[in-house]
Design brief:
This protein is of the alpha/beta class and about 250 residues long. About 25% of the residues lie in helices and about 20% in strands. It has 6 helices and 10 strands. It has helices at about 20-30, 45-55, 120-125, 135-145, 210-220, 225-240, and strands spanning about 35-40, 60-65, 70-75, 85-90, 110-115, 130-135, 150-155, 175, 180-185, 190-195. The strands form 3 sheets. Strands 5-6-7-8-9-10 form a 6-stranded mixed beta sheet, covered by helices on one side. A two-stranded parallel sheet has the order 1-2. β3 (about 70-75) and β4 form a beta hairpin. α1 crosses α5 and α3 crosses α4 (about 135-145). It is globular. The chain starts with 19 loop residues before the first helix and ends in a 10-residue tail after the last helix.
């Protein structure tokens, strides 16, 4: 990262659809899931490009178009693969009032909720398994739906969660610590889980947490118990560290 007054030269640049939802959707496709992605996009060329790229990735995209530009993010990667992100524009997410096929969620094995309004979250609860990110804590509190799992970063203050902040309490609460593994609470049981062995060299930390959440969603949807699901999710997170960008399409 440049210090004040510095000028630095990037070794490489690329663009791709990303963000928590896109990261998770790509991982679920790679795991072999049939993925329906409920999303909102901007009304500009970038929004159209993002939708087309998500479809090319293998997602069945259900998109509401907002009357504003697509959000951008500028992600810096340092020599150790760590990422630092600058967000530009307002966050776009689907609303339950959008004319999207919400009723289809009743036949879905598992949903990962990365963004949306309370009505969209209530529609997501039709699925057999519902996993959500703590980034959307206010929406989770408003919707008051039972979560099968809540995933939070143990390092990011914006994802802080304390017992009692949601009613009902999530059945499984997972705190991730990146390459150090993490901890979980499942009812009266508490424990830690180990990080998985890296299948290669660390390339890029972007999307690691949402790929972990996608792996957890996939495993819980398959019927795994919490500890087995966490081990599966840790492998998804570890693999993400060895992949360039959100989905590894740019080499």
């Amino acid at each position: 990262m440049p210090a004040q007054g510095d000028i630095v030269t990037a070794l490489d640049t690329w663009e791709e659809p990303a963000g928590g939802g896109a990261d998770a959707a790509g991982e679920l496709v790679r795991l072999g899931a049939e993925v329906d992605f409920f999303v909102a996009v901007g009304n500009d060329e970038l929004g159209r490009t993002a939708r087309e790229a998500l479809e090319a990735l293998g997602c069945r995209v259900h998109a509401a178009t907002r009357d504003e530009p697509q959000r951008r993010a500028f992600t810096y990667l340092d020599g150790d693969g760590e990422r630092t992100i600058t967000l530009m524009g307002s966050k776009l997410h689907p609303h339950g009032a959008d004319p999207l096929p919400w009723n289809e969620l009743a036949g879905v094995d598992a949903v990962y909720f990365s963004a949306g309004d309370a009505e969209a979250l209530r529609a997501a609860r039709q699925a057999r398994v519902l996993v959500a990110t703590a980034r959307e804590l206010e929406t989770l509190r408003e919707a008051q739906v039972p979560l099968d799992a809540l995933v939070r970063s143990g390092r990011d203050p914006s994802e802080a969660y304390e017992h009692g902040q949601l009613d009902p309490e999530p059945r499984l609460i997972v705190s991730t610590m990146g390459r150090e593994g993490g901890s979980f609470v499942a009812g009266e049981a508490e424990g830690i889980y180990a990080s998985a062995e890296l299948p290669g060299h660390v390339v890029d930390a972007y999307g690691e947490g949402d790929c972990f959440a996608a792996g957890l969603t996939f495993a819980l949807g398959m019927g795994d118990d919490p500890e087995a699901a966490l081990a599966f999710a840790a492998r998804s997170g570890a693999t993400a560290l060895t992949r360039r960008g959100a989905n590894g399409a740019n080499r």
